[in-house]
Design goal:
Blueprint: E1 7-11, H1 14-17, H2 47-61, E2 65-69, H3 72-75, H4 84-99, E3 103-109, H5 115-120, H6 129-144, E4 150-155, H7 157-165, H8 177-201, E5 205-211, E6 215-217, H9 222-244, H10 250-258, H11 268-273, E7 281-284, E8 289-293, E9 301-303, H12 319-332, E10 338-342, H13 359-377, E11 381-387, E12 406-408, E13 415-417, H14 419-431
Parallel strand pairs: 1-2, 1-11, 2-3, 3-4, 4-5, 5-7, 6-8, 7-10, 10-11
Antiparallel strand pairs: 8-9, 12-13
Helix pairs in contact: 2-4, 6-8, 7-8, 12-13, 13-14
């Protein structure tokens, strides 16, 4: 059973739903050539103009918490300008959420960096970003702390660094291993500086959100054990180790040097000060990884599928992987509170006779929520936020992937509840 303090929630992010309408530029704007369907977030779900109606979906769902992000680019469209219009939007939004008795968990950075920063330097791959992010965060705390239940600094720094600077599939669409490593490092230092300031001046919870994967090896062979170890370092340990141990894995640094990466910018003393600088750990879980050895991969692993059902993202569905992941974090890293800040699935939803019957998503939510209940009873998890409230702009995939429990018609912007919305609503009513 869930106790009364457990927080049920639903999540979105600013650029994916709000719409920019050419009023300001993020690092995603004017990048249609990098998006599968040549789209952008100019309109998205038009939450910016329709938030008063859209909040009704949150209220009716019965959640305790709405996890959202503030658009850095909307707030600070120019280097020396904090937008009165952008600030007023979030003030009105928070006021309405409070009126509806919905707690707000706010993420400061969910990938919508103002484009003017990249005009000056290389974003999170440059040390200068730490002070820029710090000044933005100070402004947000001053304006909005009274309206916010809890804060998160950065969403999924793995995607910010590795997908943005190594794979080149997210903004700023770079492919440079050294920039990847720098971005991994500077996202953590930016988090630390903001965390220290907040704890010196405010008293609510502030954390960081990591996307993490349970790593399984395909066989018992020694080479597959090596593959699992390096996959874990590549995906998980590069953030979990500094955050909870105060250093990088030695094998990780040696591998980087083997690959020709200059790591002299990493300050080991500073890393040690980063340890435990988070009040809670936000965990985004979507899938596990099964790996086997690959001598041609720079980090000696490759992912393989092993027969699980898959989502429309080609991700295998394995709720047990979530349990194994949380237990691993508890045993190996930390005993601080954890929140499942994102968990959900994309499927090829179709509107038929005014309904979207998405039983596959219902089964996904059910299997993962059963794991959450089990973990909560062991005092591991204090909240679960479903991703996502609406079908929306799904980054490099554009509008081709639907994660929402509310269907968005991108032509008319009409929103229609899916059967999974009704399931989650009933699940919350039953368990609260």
């Amino acid at each position: 059973m869930f106790n009364k303090k457990f927080l049920f929630g639903v999540a979105t992010s600013s650029y994916q739903i709000e719409g920019t309408f050419d009023e300001f530029k993020t690092i995603w704007c004017d990048k249609k050539d990098h998006i599968d369907d040549q789209s952008d977030g100019k309109i998205a779900c038009d939450f910016y103009h329709n938030y008063k109606d859209d909040i009704k979906w949150i209220k009716n769902l019965g959640v305790d918490v709405y996890r959202m992000s503030i658009s850095w680019a909307r707030i600070q469209p120019e280097k020396e300008l904090f937008s009165d219009q952008g600030i007023a939007f979030y003030k009105d939004l928070f006021k309405l959420l409070k009126k509806n008795k919905i707690k707000v968990d706010v993420t400061l950075y969910h990938w919508d960096m103002p484009s003017w920063i990249l005009d000056e330097f290389d974003g999170f791959a440059d040390e200068k970003i730490i002070d820029y992010f710090y000044q933005y965060a100070i402004k947000m705390f001053d304006l909005f702390d009274k309206d916010v239940h809890s804060w998160a600094t950065i969403n999924e720094p793995w995607c910010v660094s590795t997908v943005g600077y190594y794979y080149g599939a997210h903004a700023p669409f770079k492919k440079d291993i050294t920039k990847m490593v720098k971005a991994q490092y500077y996202t953590l230092l930016a988090h630390e500086k903001v965390y220290d300031y907040y704890k010196d001046n405010y008293n609510k919870d502030i954390g960081i959100v990591l996307n993490l994967w349970t790593q399984y090896q395909l066989t018992d062979k020694t080479v597959d054990a090596i593959a699992r170890e390096y996959s874990d370092m590549f995906h998980n340990q590069v953030f979990l180790y500094p955050l909870f141990k105060g250093f990088y894995p030695i094998k990780w640094i040696l591998k980087l040097k083997e690959l020709g990466v200059d790591t002299t910018f990493i300050d080991e003393k500073h890393l040690s000060q980063l340890r435990n600088k988070t009040d809670y750990l936000g965990v985004n879980y979507y899938q596990h990884h099964t790996v086997t050895y690959d001598k041609d991969h720079p980090f000696n692993f490759k992912h393989v599928h092993t027969g699980f059902e898959k989502t429309d993202m080609d991700w295998e569905i394995n709720a047990k992987g979530l349990e194994d992941l949380i237990i691993m974090i508890r045993n190996d890293y930390t005993d601080i509170p954890m929140i499942i800040t994102e968990n959900g699935a994309a499927f090829k939803d179709k509107l038929e006779n005014g309904k979207i019957i998405d039983n596959n998503r219902i089964n996904y939510i059910k299997s993962h929520s059963e794991i959450i209940e089990k973990l909560h009873e062991k005092h591991c998890i204090k909240g679960y936020y479903l991703w996502s409230l609406f079908d929306n702009f799904e980054w490099g995939f554009g509008y081709t992937k639907r994660f929402g429990i509310v269907y968005t018609d991108y032509q008319t912007l009409e929103k229609i509840p899916k059967e999974s919305y009704l399931f989650y609503k009933q699940f919350i009513e039953t368990n609260k």
